[in-house]
Design brief:
- The complex is a heterodimer of chains A (352) and B (525).
- With 352 residues, chain A is of the alpha/beta class.
- Chain A is built from 18 helices and nine strands.
- In chain A, β8, α17 and β9 form a beta-alpha-beta unit.
- In chain A, α15 runs parallel beside α18.
- Chain B has 525 residues and is of the alpha+beta class.
- Chain B contains 19 helices and 20 strands.
- Chain B has a seven-stranded antiparallel β-sheet with strand order 17-14-16-15-19-20-18, sandwiched between helices. Chain B has a five-stranded antiparallel β-sheet with strand order 7-8-12-10-11. Chain B has a four-stranded mixed β-sheet with strand order 2-4-6-5.
- Chain B starts with a strand and ends in a 21-residue tail after the last helix.
- Chains A and B meet through α1, α2, α3 and α4 of A and α2, α3, α5 and α16 of B.
Chain lengths: 352, 525
């Protein structure tokens, strides 16, 4: 902890070498919202040098938690997001909840999930568990494309989700660490009860929660969790899926933050798209340099979130591609004005 | 506020000004909030940064105003005139001389909302940007279309194009592409009286004294730059890298001088002195750990550091072994990158190799160049030194070739003799047929940080002036170098500069306390 605190001090005195990549900074033009200045304010908060507590708490919610600062950090053992989340936890305990987040938390209170009342999914048999994330639950196209792919490859899965089943990410983003731990424990019990050897899911955030933040919360589900994209690539490589080619079609792939920056999955989607015959058109900001879509609940300020979304939409439009695709149901929903598709839909459409 | 300012105290601005400026830019883009006043209280002036860890900042602005375009800037400036409110422009906040520190409780005019790439004229190869775009993003936008500005400073990821113009910035590839003054073709700026000046992006006009050049290096005293037109280049088709080892800085300077006095224009040329050769390339050394950390000037350095810091200094050295690295032991490394049209690059490579042979340079291949390319944006050590009670900074000066060896020796010796110094090293990184820029990095662990900092800067400035050098090559003046401007220009020169600034900014609205001492004595109130 002392080492991390020292790194926070280092971050607060860095020339701000990562600021060029921060979507909140780029969308707002605010120096205060750059990573280095946030680090300085967090340090001052810890030293009891700040008087405007609400202003400070708002600042820690002016972060997309996308990891751009981590990718471009001068220190390979430092993640500013850990401090941002810690401060959000303090804010939550002091009843500071940004308006954008409060609706989501209300839904959690009532229904145990961020969306509202919904049915529970619990069907199928197999050694692989297919966890239907909250945003996938709301997108029947992704769900049916994934089902089509699994059917075609003859993969039996235990499908689960809906109801009050959620990885807890919105609670984590809101700083409700007790609520998050409860969801993690619920998920652990559920998954262990399924008796599956591997979990697949369409949502990068769920993967990161289960692989990293559950463990930080003291919960270890001890099962391999992979993105459906990775799983589909395995099926293609094993010859269980054959794909027909498209002709004269251009496409732009939007890298979801967590998938690209935290899980390091950059080439797999591009390889699949090329295999299907698409001509890839990259944005000026692609791969680990891709800007966040703004997400739904990671940024606490509605205006900032919308500004980030607009910025990313404009960057994507610059490619003038025929189609746009991502590998995250949240990104797809946020960027829906581009008729964004999920990569599972693209694969599903290309099945022989 | 619990966070205190130690350099310049703020003053309150009127409620009416705040009310009216909010009408211009919108409520959310005018802030008097604690978090914003703290965030715009210092740029990257290193002593100021050092103090921030203790909750002290140089100067707290009265408010932060963030306009979105030239027209809003114009309205804000007119309003500032009406209420006699002073304005400190703030771009990336990466300047190291304190030029963006808001003296006198001035308001900050934040240019960072104006951060767009506007257009590229591929026929003339001219690109237009809003002034608040960060360098890395400027390059990404150009690279995406197959071009580059050629200006790649170490601060590229945190500095803006407006800041580059305001400080006469230089990048690592300047020997071929020039400094920013060689790239800027035109600009848009809001003058202190609120008029909008648009300088056409056309080369080499004969239309009287160049107004454009009034803005180059003006550090926000002449106007607020809102748009910049840059000359751009195609991304090079051919790149050749070379590294040679020489016996001394003097020999290396002779060799490089002969190269740049031919028609050759290598993009990158860097001469690393023996300390920096060892630090950058991790060459095998027989020196003690203490000597390795303290460098060749160790015998005159006066500071002491804890074993922990000694380890940090040594840990920062390159650990990657490579074939031929032993050739650099105890030597001065010189690296070259030649790039552009393939035919010219091959010719340039032949010239470089011929000159290296003449001066008994030993070829070390291209690996050291790759190591430098990998490490050139690594600044992680600076904050660690500051956190451990040390002071670290860089100083860049420029002199004619005939004075360069004596200046190098004098500046190293003078700075090393300041009480508390633990490391003083240098490299040359920007070359012209007549001159070379010397870039010094220094660190100390003194008991009195401020005295060490001020004495070291004075020693460097005085040594430069003794050898007919200029006190800055590309970082600018800010407030830190102001005391040396009269010696730089002479009494007449300094007066003329004040007269020009006073004529343009009659009511002393822009960037108080910067560039020249008190302008006419009224500015710093």
């Amino acid at each position: 902890m002392e080492k991390q605190l020292n790194r926070l001090i280092d971050c607060s005195m860095c020339p701000n070498m990562c600021k060029f990549s921060c979507p909140v900074y780029l969308a707002t033009g605010s120096e205060t919202f750059t990573p280095q200045k946030k680090a300085r304010l967090i340090l001052y908060g810890k030293k009891n040098l700040l008087q405007d507590e609400d202003g400070f708490f708002d600042t820690v919610f002016q972060c997309a938690l996308c990891g751009s600062c981590v990718v471009n950090c001068q220190y390979d053992d430092f993640d500013l997001r850990d401090f941002i989340i810690e401060e959000r936890g303090i804010a939550f305990k002091k009843d500071f909840v940004p308006s954008l987040v409060s609706d989501v938390l209300e839904n959690f209170d009532k229904f145990g999930n961020p969306s509202g009342k919904r049915e529970t999914i619990d069907k199928g048999e197999g050694e692989i568990g297919f966890f239907v994330s909250c945003n996938t639950f709301n997108d029947k196209n992704i769900l049916s494309a994934t089902g089509k792919i699994l059917d075609k490859a003859d993969v039996d899965v235990k499908e689960f989700g809906g109801g009050d089943i959620c990885c807890g990410a919105p609670l984590y983003f809101a700083g409700d660490m007790d609520g998050f731990k409860e969801k993690a424990e619920q998920m652990e019990k559920l998954i262990k009860g399924k008796g599956v050897k591997r979990i697949i899911t369409n949502c990068p955030t769920c993967i990161k929660m289960m692989k990293k933040h559950y463990i930080e919360a003291g919960v270890n589900i001890e099962i391999d969790i992979v993105h459906t994209l990775t799983f589909a690539k395995e099926l293609i490589d094993e010859g269980k899926l054959s794909l027909k080619k498209v002709e004269n079609k251009s496409i732009t792939y939007h890298d979801p933050c967590i998938l690209a920056k935290d899980l390091d999955i950059l080439e797999t989607p591009r390889t699949i798209l090329k295999k299907i015959g698409y001509s890839l058109r990259e944005t000026a900001y692609a791969g680990k340099d891709a800007h966040c879509c703004g997400g739904k609940t990671k940024v606490g300020d509605r205006n900032t979130r919308n500004a980030i979304k607009n910025m990313r939409e404009n960057e994507l439009k610059e490619t003038k591609a025929l189609d746009y695709v991502s590998a995250c149901p949240t990104c797809k929903d946020v960027l829906k004005s581009l008729q964004m598709k999920d990569i599972m839909e693209i694969i599903g459409d290309a099945l022989e | 506020m619990k966070v205190k300012s130690f350099l310049s105290k703020g003053k309150n601005i009127s409620y009416e000004f705040i009310k009216e400026v909010k009408r211009i830019v919108g409520e959310k883009y005018v802030s008097e909030d604690e978090r914003d006043l703290i965030s715009y209280s210092v740029d990257y002036w290193l002593y100021g940064v050092y103090k921030t860890q203790f909750g002290e900042v140089p100067a707290i602005p009265s408010a932060v105003v963030s306009p979105k375009n030239t027209e809003e800037v114009q309205k804000v400036v007119i309003l500032a005139n009406k209420y006699h409110v002073q304005i400190t422009p703030f771009g990336g906040g990466s300047g190291v001389l304190g030029a963006a520190i808001p003296f006198n409780g001035s308001i900050i005019l934040n240019t960072q909302r104006m951060n767009k790439f506007i257009s590229l004229d591929e026929i003339s190869r001219v690109a237009v940007f809003e002034s608040g775009i960060i360098g890395t993003n400027l390059e990404k936008e150009l690279n995406y279309k197959g071009y580059s500005s050629g200006n790649i400073p170490q601060s590229i990821s945190c500095s803006t194009v407006g800041g580059w113009v305001s400080t006469r910035a230089a990048g690592q590839f300047s020997t071929k592409y020039g400094k920013i003054e060689d790239m800027v073709l035109g600009l848009t700026a809001v003058l202190p009286d609120g008029e909008i000046l648009r300088i056409k992006p056309v080369s080499r006009k004969s239309t009287g004294p160049s107004l454009k050049h009034l803005f180059l290096g003006s550090e926000g005293t002449m106007g607020i730059i809102t748009e910049v037109y840059l000359s751009v280049h195609k991304i090079p088709e051919k790149v050749i890298k070379n590294c040679f080892a020489f016996d001394s800085v003097e020999t290396a300077l002779d060799m490089v001088r002969e190269v740049v006095q031919t028609d050759a224009k290598p993009a990158v040329v860097r001469i690393f002195d023996k300390d920096e050769t060892e630090r950058y390339f991790g060459v095998v050394s027989t020196r003690s750990k203490y000597q390795q950390a303290f460098g060749v000037a160790g015998k005159i350095l006066t500071g002491k550091v804890s074993p922990k810091v000694l380890n940090i200094l040594n840990e920062s050295k390159n650990k990657i072994g490579f074939e031929g690295m032993e050739k650099l032991a105890g030597k001065v490394a010189v690296i070259f990158i030649s790039e552009g049209d393939e035919d010219f690059v091959f010719l340039e490579d032949r010239v470089i190799k011929r000159k290296a042979e003449k001066y008994n340079g030993i070829s070390v291949g291209e690996k050291p160049v790759d190591i430098w390319l990998d490490k050139r944006f690594d600044v992680h050590l600076g904050p660690i030194i500051l956190r451990n009670g040390g002071i670290v900074d860089t100083i860049e000066v420029v002199s004619l070739f005939k004075d360069a060896p004596a200046l190098y020796n004098d500046i190293i010796e003078s700075m090393s003799g300041i009480k508390g110094a633990v490391s003083v090293s240098g490299h040359y990184s920007h070359f012209y047929p007549e001159s070379a820029c010397l870039y010094i990095t220094f660190a100390g662990f003194p008991k009195d940080q401020l005295k060490y900092y001020e004495d070291t800067w004075s020693a460097a400035m005085e040594a430069t002036l003794r050898h007919n050098g200029s006190i800055s090559h590309h970082h600018g003046i800010g407030f830190l170098r102001k005391p040396f401007m009269q010696k730089e220009f002479g009494i007449a020169g300094e007066k003329m500069m004040k007269d020009v600034i006073n004529a343009v900014d009659k009511d002393h609205i822009f960037n108080p306390g910067k560039l020249v001492e008190g302008k006419d004595g009224k500015t710093v109130k």
